[in-house]
Amino acid sequence: MALLLQRGPGLALKQAGKLLDETGELFVTLLEGLRRTWDVRTWWGEFIEQCWFMIRVTTVPLLLIAIPLGATISLQVGDIARQIGAESSTGALVVAGMVRQVAPLAAALLIAGSGGSAMTSDMGARRIRDELSALEVMGINPTHRLVTPRLWAASVVSVLLCSMVILSGTAGGFYFNVIQQGVTPGAYFDGAAALLQISDLGVTLFKAWMFGLTAAAVACMMGMNCEYGPAGVGRAVTRATVATSLLVFALNYTIETLYTVLVPPKF
Fold first, then answer.
1. One-character DSSP codes across 90-136
2. 10 Å Cβ neighbour count for 266?
3. How far apart are CA 98 and CA 164, in angstroms?
4. HSE of 9 in the Cβ direction (CA atoms, 13 Å)?
5. In principle, which of 151, 165, 234, 235 could form an S-S bond with 103, CB 3.0–4.6 Å?
6. Residue 31 falls within a domain, yes or no?
7. Of 260, 246, 151, whose CA–CA distance to 200 is shortest?
């Protein structure tokens, strides 16, 4: 019994130390990747390739998620609004929800699930084949050559996906709210324009950019530090996806809280 009590705190301290090490490694990877951003010539080609890859693997799933999501929100909100006699406010609630919360989170989770998983497995495969060590032997920093373009590709694509979620979700909500439930198009868009501000769209795109940057940093860090062997790469992919999801929700809460305090909502 005494042995178990002794091992319990020791194991907890070991796990806490490992978490702190990974947090520090994440910040080092992110900052070192951004440090050589100015040297665009060394990573421009890889940036274009990564952008095209992530657009290819995320666009169709995004549309399949965003349109039904906007329609579902519109149906649920429309039913509640009809019960209280406020059908004209449905568009405002749907569009505001898509712009402020749903769009950046959906884009970030798709980046983490599709692009981030592939990014982690790619970096992990390079590690177990000793390609990262070979780059270092040739005097090339692997973080500058491989991580920097992936950071910017993920952040740029995340902003584009966020815009697509807003447009497709709003279109799905428009169809079910206006065509199916009989709300006038003017009331649908006027309510949204009265509730939203330009700064709402700005902070949404900023959140999408931050989420994409975080997803790429976590994916690259996990892949570059995975255990050797296929099993190590698989575990790194799982850990990267889970860690990105947790960080995205934490960042979303922090940014939204600061924005609500600094910029009063529009009434």
1. HHHHHHHHIIIIIHHHHHHHHIIIIIIHHHHHHHHHHHHTTHHHHHH
2. 11
3. 11
4. 4
5. 165
6. no
7. 260
Closest CA to 220 of 246, 244, 252, 254: 244
For tokens 């939204």, what's the residue? 256
Q: Which amino acid is at 75?
A: L
- Global pTM reads 0.83
Tens of pLDDT along the chain (267 residues) come to 444 344 556 666 666 666 777 777 888 888 888 888 888 888 888 899 989 988 888 888 877 777 777 667 766 666 666 666 665 566 667 777 778 888 888 888 888 888 888 888 888 888 888 888 888 888 888 888 889 999 999 999 999 988 888 888 777 777 777 777 677 777 677 766 667 778 888 888 999 999 999 999 999 989 888 888 888 888 888 888 888 988 999 998 999 888 888 877 665
Which of 35, 26, 225 shows the shortest CA–CA distance to 124? 225
Structure-token match 């009809």, residue found: 82
Residue 32 lies in a domain: no
Does the CA dihedral 223-246-36-154 come out positive or negative?
Answer: positive
Let me know how many helices (H) and strands (E) the chain has, helices first.
11, 0
The boundaries of the domain holding residue 134 are 47-262
Q: Is residue 7 part of a domain?
A: no
In the DSSP assignment, the letter for residue 180 is I
Q: How many domains does the chain have?
A: 1
140 DSSP assignment: -
- Give CA 259 to chain center in angstroms: 18
